[in-house]
Please model this.
Amino acid sequence: MKIAIITSGFLPVIDGVTVSGWNRIQKLSEWGHQVLLFCPDYSAISSIYPNWQDFTGNILPGVRVVNLKSTPFFVEFERNVAFYSYSKLQQELEKFQPDVIHVDEPERLFVGFWRVAGKDYAQKHHIPCLSFFRTNFLEYLEDFFPLPKPLLNLLIYLIRKLIIYVYNSYDLTLVTSKVTEPKIRKIGIKNIFYSNLIGFDTSKFNPQLRQANFFKTNYNLPELDDKVKLIFLGRLTPDKGWGFTLKALPKLFQTIDKNKIAILIAGDGEMKTEICQTISQFTPHFYCFGRVAPEQIPVLLVNSDFHVTTSEKETRGLTVLEAFAANIPVLAPRAGGVVENIQDGINGFLFTPQDQDDFIHKLKILVENQSLRQQMGIQGRKSVIGKYSWEQAVTNLLNIWQEQIIRYQNIIVDG
Model:
């Protein structure tokens, strides 16, 4: 199959969209498919991503990445496609002649291109063009646009209209969360198709990777190894719930010995300085590892004691699944896609969103009860093993693409 993928982001940027995209094309390459992937050009922020050229051109057998001219996008470590880059996309599609076009986060791409990405080529050549709903940008607006309520409501109204128009322009809108599906249907998206389309290599999250002196050996931090380690994993941006976290965490240290626990953060973003300064005021045992490469995440999770997220806006929450595979429990808000996999009291805890007391209460239980953490970790791993392989996720995606290709072929024959 010849597959064109137009995506809002790719490596070396590290987030759910880019990491899953990388794993997806690895499988497609392994299985002999041809892939042309379009993403923003990251040369303008090479100081942040000095290795960006490692992920452009012919990066795998049968896979070529084309970087499109880009512009800044809200935060310093992101880019979006530029309006004048669409002609290059069209030219490359004409040369490649794909069987199907797959578009990740088309509403973000629309803001760059000012058109529905890939749809005009698909209509001209009578091939399917599918979208993948990855991020609920409507929920993020208040985090990045601190406007008066009337103006914010107007902005939300306009963006909602844009989202409805963009997604309903495609043959299908793919969604991989049963929690997100009814949300976007309520917004007004009509062509929704649910399937399990994300995965990870559970073998890399082997509990046997846990080492007695891991942080001494690998990070020269011997003082960490005898502490209960809470790990936050992801972007350090307002949408990830950091405002709530910074207000709530000081209460934990009013009720527990601060020398008993360590707070680990693996991630980067615009709030890094604020987070570091705030947390370091109430505990000396705070460690920010910055942007961690995907291949280093499994061993870091396995050698932590539990994963904490306060994000209420995840459409799926891959880090939750990874933590379970690493044999550690998760503490998360009862909101968004994360609730799909967390069984409260079984493999982790759900706290009431924005309730600091509930958050601290459940955080304290996990800190103080080692046997409970271990039991929850075992249950978490059981809940994901064998269910989220990339082999199955990509097979599901290929089946969807193939069904749409056949549908178009039948339309042509009948016509």
Q: What stands out?
A: The CA atoms of residues 155 and 361 lie 37 Å apart.
